[in-house]
Design goal:
The chain is α+β, with helices and mostly antiparallel strands. It has five helices and eight strands; from the N terminus they run αααααββββββββ. α2 packs across α3. It is elongated and about 50 Å long.
Length: 177
């Protein structure tokens, strides 16, 4: 089996760059490149991490049958903590990259933010579960607090920040996280 080629195919199908996959799986871009070109082999643990980031698992990767999981538990989530931006992202539907939308649970610590996102095609929706957030879209800033939702087309540069901390259910279509 061409493991590197299959990983490349999954990554490209999900619309991820090597750098994005490396970031999600906490590996280097160089390692992902070597892996996709079959110049190195991953450990089982590393392969599981990469496949989780690509919305699949070992069973699905090595089989041709399709798994149609509907309900996901916290143990299924993939989590990334970003100490620089003071946030935590949980991909609450691990295989959502194959879908038209990708929901995440975003926790912004006090003073936390997301990376500024360049304009792109798509839409983004959020529901504030706790705290207050500032939604920065182009030159404008909008506030949303617990119990409020937000929606925007992603055609302008955008990011979210929180002075006091917040938890948001955030959905992006098409997937962009």
């Amino acid at each position: 089996m061409n493991i590197g080629g299959k990983i490349r195919g999954l990554r490209v199908a999900k619309g991820l760059t090597q750098e994005e996959l490396a970031d999600r799986s906490e590996l280097s871009k160089g390692f992902i490149s070597q892996l996709e070109n079959n110049l190195t082999s991953p450990s089982i643990a590393t392969l599981i991490d990469i496949l989780t980031c690509l919305g699949t698992d070992l069973k699905a990767f090595f089989s041709d049958s399709e798994d149609n999981q509907v309900v996901f538990q916290k143990t299924d989530y993939f989590e990334k903590q970003d100490k620089e931006l003071n946030n935590t992202i949980q991909w609450i539907i691990p295989n959502a990259q194959k879908n038209m939308m990708e929901p995440i649970l975003l926790t912004l610590s006090q003073g936390g933010s997301t990376y500024p996102d360049n304009p792109h095609e798509g839409e983004e929706f959020g529901f504030v579960l706790s705290g207050t957030v500032d939604i920065h879209i182009g030159n404008k800033v909008y506030k949303a607090k617990k119990g409020e939702s937000f929606y925007y087309e992603a055609k302008f540069a955008h990011f979210i920040s929180s002075r006091q901390g917040a938890k948001i259910l955030w959905v992006s279509s098409p997937p962009s996280f």
